[in-house]
Amino acid sequence: MDEKPEQDRIPDTPLFDRKRSLDGYRINKMAMGLSKPENREAFRQDESAYLDRFGLTPEEKEAVMTRNWREMVRLGGNLFFILKISAVDPVRITEIGAHQAGMEHDDFLRNRLGKKV
Amino acid sequence: MAKLIGGLGTSHVPSIGAAIDKGLRDTPDWKPFFDGYIPGQDWVKEHKPDVAVVIFNDHGNSFFLDKVPTFAVGCAEEYRPVDEGWGPRAIPPFRGAVDFSWHFIDTLIENRFDPMICQEIEVDHGIQVPMELFWGRPAEWPVRVVPIFVNVIQYPIPLPSRCYEMGRVLRRAIENYPTDERFVVLGTGGLSHQLQGARAGFVNPEADRAFLNDIATDPDKLARMSREQYVEMFGSEGAELMMWLVMRGAMDRDVVVRHKHYFVPASMTGAGMIVMENEKTPSPAVAA
């Protein structure tokens, strides 16, 4: 089998396929945990220790702890799960979008979403 | 026998629920969006459905990746709002239409659809927001629900044509159901949006408007489209739109559009609403 990841046919559009689901299982499971109040508290108290509970690799930990959304998605994180991080450490979904698009927030609102800002 | 009185379509963006919770309904960002739903709410008030079959997807709240049903049908007495990370929302639990749910599951299996059967399950914004958009915020929901969960997140997701076919089976189940209850079917999700990747923030108002026309006049075309075409045209999360085909498949070929509304952007999404009745059997309003 070819080891290289298959190119997404639609540019800049990562579909949550088998590979991403397998790669991202730890990150997504960690984020899913945040739907429990006691886990949100644990994340707040000691984020690093909380991430270790789910066996995140150093690369995955780094992506989560630096709130590097683009990198989390590259590592197989799915927005619906990793969005729960924003329930503990608030950030707007449009900011997460802008980060992935590599744009300033206002530019993103204007140029992608057609908002007048 | 039970009767299908209408097919409704709507987006189910979580920010809509958050906007209601935070009292933002009448702010400049949201008022034009919410005002567009008033005719839909009036239609529901006038037509008084007894049961709402709601097709939606879970967003990593009721199901994790450990178990991913392609289709799942709720047959619970009650569906409570799930904690999506911010605590469960303060809305009343939905009452189930248990007997019809089992009847529907029987009908599905007999017609070669094999869903997961859920007797206890909490529900996320995928069903909450559509219910609030059409029924408002009652102390208790005046309608019972049948949730149909469709996996549109973990590939392989089902084919659009399969959703359409499931709608036909749903219609059969409603018309073979020996009560005089009035049913509406809600197709939810979309319209165009993309949350992941460098194309995040993609919206396609032109395609959205065309979809709101085609869902009424040319659903066969929408059912023939591939999953990739949905993603390309409506964005990676916009592929949710194929769930409207379950609703549309439950209706006759010829429908009358009673109300339609489009607004962009609701958060990061092109948001649409439609109310349709079958042309041959339009549904008169019910006296209060």
UniProtKB/TrEMBL annotation, chain A:
Record-level Gene Ontology MF annotations: protocatechuate 4,5-dioxygenase activity
Stretches assigned to the Extradiol ring-cleavage dioxygenase LigAB LigA subunit domain: 27-111
InterPro entries per UniProt: LigA_sf, Xdiol_dOase_LigA
Recorded superkingdom: Bacteria
A Pfam family matched in the record: LigA
UniProt EC number: 1.13.11.8
Keywords: Dioxygenase, Oxidoreductase
Protein name in UniProt: Protocatechuate 4,5-dioxygenase alpha chain
Origin species: Microvirga lupini
Organism phylogeny: Bacteria, Pseudomonadati, Pseudomonadota, Alphaproteobacteria, Hyphomicrobiales
From TrEMBL, chain B:
UniProt entry tagged with the keyword Oxidoreductase: yes
Keyword Cell cycle annotated: no
Domain Extradiol ring-cleavage dioxygenase class III enzyme subunit B: 8-270
Broad class of enzyme this protein falls into: oxidoreductase
Keywords per UniProt: Dioxygenase, Oxidoreductase
Matches recorded under SUPFAM superfamilies: LigB-like
EC number: 1.13.11.8
GO MF term (any one): protocatechuate 4,5-dioxygenase activity
Segments traversing the membrane: none
Database matches in NCBIfam families: PRK13364.1, PRK13365.1, PRK13366.1
Protein name in UniProt: Protocatechuate 4,5-dioxygenase beta chain
